[in-house]
Amino acid sequence: MTPEEIIAVLKNPSHRGDLRYLTLFLIAGKYDVSGLTALAKQEGVASQLGYLSEVAAIASERRGLCSKKLYELSRDLYTANGNWQFLDPAIPVFARRIISSGPKTDLNKKWRIWDTLGPDDIGDWISLYHIKNEHGSHQREIPQSSGYSIGY
Amino acid sequence: MAHIKEKYLNHQDILSVIRKIDRNLEGYQRKFRLYCIGGTYLAFSGIDESSKDIDFILSHEDFRALSGIIAEIELKDKIRIDLFPDGEMPNFKLPNYDGHSSRVLSLDHLNVYKIDMVDFVLIKAIAGRVQDYKDIEKLVKDKSLMHKEKLIERFNELEIAKNKEDDIKRKFWAFIDEFYR
What we know:
The complex is a heterodimer. Chain A is built from eight helices and five strands. Chain A is mostly helical. Chain A has a two-stranded parallel ribbon with strand order 1-2. Chain A has a two-stranded antiparallel ribbon with strand order 3-4. Chain B has two domains: about 120 residues, no CATH class; about 60 residues, no CATH class. Helices cover about 50% and strands about 15% of the residues of chain B. Chain B has a five-stranded mixed beta sheet. A two-stranded antiparallel ribbon of chain B has the order 4-7. In chain B, helix 5 packs antiparallel against helix 6, helix 5 crosses helix 7 and helix 5 packs across helix 8. The radius of gyration of chain B is 17 Å and the shape is globular. The model of chain B has no long low-confidence stretch (mean pLDDT about 90). Classes of the chains: A mainly alpha, B alpha/beta. The interface between A and B is large, with 38 and 40 residues.
């Protein structure tokens, strides 16, 4: 994905899965960090991308993958005192009210982003898709789920 | 990275897995029942939503017979199939999951059902993630057909884990307040 494609997905994800895919791409894909940072700031989506990159960094760290580049990306994107925004612009109106008035995680507060996507969700997908990056890999064949996943 | 999108399961993929389970049940003299929830439910509702896994509720008796077969398919096809015996979810139990279900597929050894839409919405409402709310919006086109009283009645039937009671109640009542506002 080019920086332009990444920003386009952030601004208008046609499917909720696009945001998960983008987060996994940040972990495992190849992209130009400085070009992406500059474009995200210019297009007004620095907080959204920063949130996703920190979610990706924490999930990677927990799964034994390299997180350095992701933490760098999130650090470069951070600006204090931004306005609260929704990560997903297509969130239903009733859900906007629930999410914005519900409890917030430290990541939500730091980035001023309303969303429920967190490192646990992304960790689950890292397992499911055997995601690897340049310095680490996740070796389990079938991921553990919250239910009775009985495949191993 | 392309393999990620290729591994999303669509309706056809889910059907093919169910047929595989059915073929593996040859020799059994009775029919097994699988009740779709989550993305599997949406796929059988004609909603074009890809899923990362396949989720079924089933009876304990059917679980005992099917678990080995399903484990083999999971390993061989590198997919995830989550089974919830007797409606036991991680934080609550959904009793009477079969009471209002409708059959969506009948094979030689398997009948596949969708749980009642009220139960589907209830499960999504108390999960309370953005994706869950988007799924509800896709499914419930006419709010007047999703009776608030029924949802509350079904919620009151849930058996909720003690340590999750506050969180689940908060999510449910926030949903009721905002969805019907």
